[in-house]
Structure formats: structure tokens, C-alpha cells
Design a protein that fits this description.
CATH topology of the largest domain: Glutathione S-transferase Yfyf (Class Pi), Chain A, domain 2
Largest sheet: 4 strands, mixed
Bound molecules: glutathione
Helix content: 55-70%
CATH class of the largest domain: Mainly Alpha
Order of helices and strands: EHEHEEHHHHHHH
Structural class: alpha+beta
Number of strands: 4
Number of helices: 9
Length: about 220
């Protein structure tokens, strides 16, 4: 390897939306990288524990001698380091709002529409309705947009796309829940189709059947926790 050559490594997991979104960004920007897959449900490698001793979670991004956990931070770092095909808006308000929606989806939508739903003590119809109320905020935000940030794939498509259609929806499917029917969420479903048409994104989406089996395991674990 020459002295100037970049060393880029991602420690991720095939089923993790947090890892998938980082691969989406690397592929979109054409950054070559080595990938190490962690089967974190079974075992956490000494490398993962060493690189992310605080959270012990994937993904961890390694660029030369820099080590960075946390997918939102990794995406921002990638965007600022490899500036072709920008994924975040350039204007301060657009950037702040992209961060807002990304945080909302990871910190509110994901736990409330999945983990809490699996364990809910409410009537399931009521819990689903509450989950749909949250998702409706995304439906409204996405209305009329090809992608979340406009005409090209960007940060929000990676964060929200890796989470809602290509992770949570598979969990809802294995629980037999039709969470985002077309009649109720036409704009969300239109946007999902746009994502599925993109070759780079498609490459980063976990294989559906295998993923549903994985989500079954997660549902079982949440139930018995
Ligand atoms: N906030 C983190 C979340 C990462 C995360 O939750 N990763 C999961 C995989 S989907 C993990 O490593 N879980 C292992 C554990 O919870 O012990 C990010 O955005 O990167």
C-alpha cells in the first residue's frame, strides 16, 4: 500500500440499519472499503469491544488512524471527507432539519413502532394506531418529494430508508402487522419505490427472507427480555 493510500474499514452487521446506511454512503461516493461483519447477536468480537468500548455497537468506522462510532456522525464525517455526491444539504437550516428527522426516526419511530409494540400491554390495534401517528409525520414530510432531501439520494434516504422500509417493515411483517398500507401512507410507499429503484441502495438492503428470519429472533428476544 502506498503512503497516500486511504485505509477505510467498516465494522458492521448485515442486518443492522445503522450499518447499512454507512455502506450506502460509501458506495454512493465510490469510497473503497474493507468490511468486517459482526454477528453481534451471538458474539461481540474483541475488535468491536476495543474500537467501541463505550457503546459496544456496530457500526464502527475506521479511516486511517481515526475511529468513529455512531452512524449519524459517520455519515457526516464521510460527507465532509469525500465531498463528491454530497448527501447532506449545504444550507444550515436544511442540514439541521435533516439531523432532526434522522434523530426522530432512530430515537422515536424505531423504538415506539417496534420494541415497545412487541412488548405493549395495550390492545394491539391501539398500539398500532399510536405507531402510525408517529409515522404520519414522515408521510407529511415526504409529500411531493422524490427523495427526502429533494431530487437526489441523500442522508435522510439512507437513515430513514435503512430503518423504516428495510428494517422495521420486515419486523412488522414477521409480526403480521400491515403498518404502512398504501391507502394510509401513499407518499411513503411512493418514496420507498423510488429507493428500491436505486441500484446502489438496493445493493445495501438485506436479503428479505433472511432478514425476516433475523427479525423473528429479535422479536423473540424482546418478548422474553
Ligand atoms: N446509535 C447507534 C446505534 C447502533 C446500534 O444500535 N447497533 C446495534 C445493531 S442494529 C448493535 O450493535 N447492537 C448491539 C447491542 O445492542 O449490544 C448508531 O446510530 O450507530
Amino acid at each position: 500500500m502506498s503512503e497516500n493510500e486511504e485505509r477505510v474499514k467498516l465494522i458492521g452487521s448485515w442486518a443492522s440499519p445503522f450499518s447499512r446506511r454507512v455502506e450506502m454512503a460509501l458506495k454512493l461516493k465510490g469510497v473503497p472499503y474493507d468490511y468486517l461483519d459482526e454477528d453481534y447477536l451471538v458474539h461481540k468480537s474483541p475488535l468491536l469491544l476495543q474500537l467501541n468500548p463505550i457503546y459496544k455497537k456496530v457500526p464502527v468506522f475506521v479511516h486511517n488512524d481515526k475511529i468513529l462510532p455512531e452512524s449519524h456522525l459517520i455519515l457526516e464525517y464521510i460527507d465532509q471527507t469525500w465531498t463528491n455526491n454530497p448527501i447532506l444539504p449545504q444550507d444550515p437550516y436544511g442540514k439541521a432539519m435533516a439531523r432532526f428527522w434522522a434523530k426522530f426516526v432512530d430515537e422515536q419511530v424505531a423504538p415506539i413502532t417496534f420494541k415497545s409494540l412487541v412488548k405493549t400491554e395495550k390492545r394491539i390495534e391501539v398500539a398500532i394506531e399510536e405507531a402510525q401517528e408517529l409515522i404520519m409525520f414522515i408521510e407529511k414530510e415526504i409529500t411531493g418529494k422524490k427523495f427526502f432531501g429533494g431530487e437526489t439520494i441523500g442522508f435522510l434516504d439512507m437513515v430513514v430508508g435503512s430503518m423504516i422500509p428495510f428494517c422495521l417493515a420486515r419486523g412488522w411483517e414477521c409480526m403480521g402487522i400491515d403498518m404502512i398500507p398504501d391507502e394510509k401512507f401513499p407518499e411513503l410507499n411512493r418514496w420507498i419505490k423510488n429507493l428500491e429503484e436505486d441500484e446502489i441502495l438496493r445493493e445495501c438492503i438485506p436479503h428479505r427472507e433472511k432478514h425476516i428470519e433475523h427479525m423473528m429472533i429479535i422479536v423473540g428476544r424482546i418478548k422474553s427480555a
